[in-house]
């Protein structure tokens, strides 16, 4: 049975000086990736328009863009539903991200930029401060910031935008995995190993640490599926 949007959800002020559809898209996307909107949740265009104080047109446009990313399933004249997490799509997103980031860390290890290393270590420290608080949403934001900093330092920020657009399914898998005992600590440890290898100019070490880091969630796919059987689909 499908869930419906709770009355407390989607409380978000629209900036009237900006286009509405991108704001609705970003907010709904955040809620889907954080699993505040779980797979199977029905998104009513009429209800969303009412909550945002908008016409249905920008809401429709936002939902169509979410559909393009595979985050919702749109059934014309029927309903829009938050999609299940597609494992095949997650694997392809991981393949792309790993391919790009292996070159990113290679570039950074060759540069050995002291300023970047300080920035990355500061981000890791912020993550470490959240370990005992179990603030998974903030932890995830710093995780994204860590990787974005590396892309920007390597001179390929647009590739980060590309990866983010294609990573909705793998991001939701990671969000399911994050509360597992020891996972957040492992992320901090992996990030530290990556930065240490970059600082030492150790290309092989940085790439090995990155491979381990990016693959850890999909290595636990059977356990995640067992814990959330209704959230995952294979294709």
What does this structure look like?
The protein has 235 residues and is mainly α. It has two domains: 20-83, Arc Repressor Mutant, subunit A (Orthogonal Bundle); 86-233, Four Helix Bundle (Hemerythrin (Met), subunit A) (Up-down Bundle). The protein is 64% helix and 6% strand. The protein has eleven helices and five strands; from the N terminus they run H-E-H-H-E-E-E-H-H-H-H-H-H-H-H-E. It has helices at 20-33, 45-52, 56-68, 87-111, 114-129, 136-153, 157-166, 168-177, 183-199, 203-215, 221-227, and strands at residues 42-43, 72-75, 79-82, 85-86, 232-233. The strands form two sheets. It has a three-stranded antiparallel sheet. Strands 4-5 form a two-stranded parallel sheet. Strand 2 (72-75) and strand 3 form a beta hairpin. Helix 1 (20-33) crosses helix 3, helix 4 packs antiparallel against helix 10 and helix 6 crosses helix 7. This is GntR family transcriptional regulator. Residues 18-85 form the HTH gntR-type domain. Keywords: DNA-binding, Transcription, Transcription regulation. It comes from Paraburkholderia sejongensis.
């Amino acid at each position: 049975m499908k869930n419906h949007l709770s009355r407390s959800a989607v409380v978000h002020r629209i900036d009237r000086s900006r286009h509405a559809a991108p704001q609705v898209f970003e907010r709904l996307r955040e809620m889907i990736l954080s699993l505040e909107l779980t797979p199977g949740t029905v998104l009513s265009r009429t209800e969303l328009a009412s909550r945002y104080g908008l016409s249905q047109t920008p809401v429709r446009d936002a939902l169509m863009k979410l559909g393009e990313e595979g985050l919702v399933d749109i059934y014309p004249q029927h309903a829009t539903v938050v999609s299940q997490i597609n494992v095949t799509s997650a694997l392809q997103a991981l393949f792309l991200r790993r391919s790009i980031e292996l070159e990113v860390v290679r570039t950074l290890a060759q540069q050995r930029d002291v300023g970047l290393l300080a920035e990355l270590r500061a981000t890791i420290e912020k993550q470490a401060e959240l370990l005992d608080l179990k603030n998974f949403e903030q932890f995830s934001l710093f995780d994204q910031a860590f990787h974005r900093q590396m892309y920007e330092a390597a001179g390929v920020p647009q590739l980060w935008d590309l990866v983010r657009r294609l990573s909705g399914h793998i991001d939701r898998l990671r969000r399911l995995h994050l509360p597992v005992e020891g996972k957040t600590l492992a992320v901090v440890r992996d990030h530290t190993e990556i930065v240490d290898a970059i600082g030492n100019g150790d290309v092989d070490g940085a790439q090995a640490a990155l491979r381990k880091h990016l693959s850890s969630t999909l290595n636990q796919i059977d356990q995640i599926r067992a814990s959330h059987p209704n959230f995952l689909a294979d294709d």
